[in-house]
Structure formats: C-alpha cells, structure tokens
Amino acid sequence: MYTLLHCSPFSLQDLDEESAEVKCMCRIGTNRFFWPLVEDIIWYRWGDIIMSIPEPQQVTSRHVQIDPGVWTTVMKKVDQF
C-alpha cells in the first residue's frame, strides 16, 4: 500500500492503533520521487497521513511519479491539511 505524508509517498511497513511505520520516498520536484539509498523508515501518527494512493508510476530508471489526476487531488488535500 502506498500512502502520502505531507506530499511524499511511502510504503507501509507496520502499524498499530496510533501510528504507522513507513518507508519514505524523497521528493525532487513537482510529482517526482525516488527511494533514498539509505532507507528512511520512521513511525508517523495516523493524523499525519493524508490519503492512500495507487502505486507510483516509473518515469525513469530511478524516479517515479503519482498519477497526475491523483496528484491534483493530493495537492487539494494538502492545501486543506
């Protein structure tokens, strides 16, 4: 499952009642992301998670992007967040 936290996609690793352990991607521009060389895994509270999204699409050998229609929805939610 991929989800968004403050505009960065992540992969859910574990969860409990109050929070989720996630493996975060790095953002490098408008709707472009990559997995860092050193894994960025941390626990976040459920209230910090914006929404679930489809798996990002590969656009280069290293970079991915969120479906543009979904990205538009994400940006609207971020503005309300």
Question: What would you say this structure looks like, in words?
Answer:
The structure is a single chain. By secondary structure, the chain is α+β, with helices and mostly antiparallel strands. The chain has one domain. It has one helix and nine strands; from the N terminus they run E-E-E-E-E-E-E-E-E-H. The protein has one helix at residues 68-80; strands at 2-5, 8-15, 19-24, 26-27, 33-34, 41-45, 49-53, 57-58, 64-65. Strands 6-3-2-1-7 form a five-stranded antiparallel sheet, covered by helices on one side. The longest helix has 13 residues, at 68-80. It is globular and about 35 Å long. It starts with a strand and ends with a helix.
Query: What is the C-alpha radius of gyration, as a whole number of Å?
Result: 12 Å
> How confident overall, as mean pLDDT?
85
Residue ranges: pLDDT <50 for 5 or more in a row? Answer: none
The ordered H/E elements are EEEEEEEEEH
Q: Span from first to last CA?
A: 21 Å
The total count of helices amounts to 1
Summarize the structure.
The protein has 81 residues and is of the alpha+beta class. The chain is built from one helix and nine strands, in the order E-E-E-E-E-E-E-E-E-H. A hairpin with a 2-residue loop joins strand 1 and strand 2.
Write out key terms for the chains shown:
81 residues, alpha+beta, five-stranded antiparallel sheet, 1 helix, 16% helix
How is this fold's topology laid out?
Elements: E1 2-5, E2 8-15, E3 19-24, E4 26-27, E5 33-34, E6 41-45, E7 49-53, E8 57-58, E9 64-65, H1 68-80
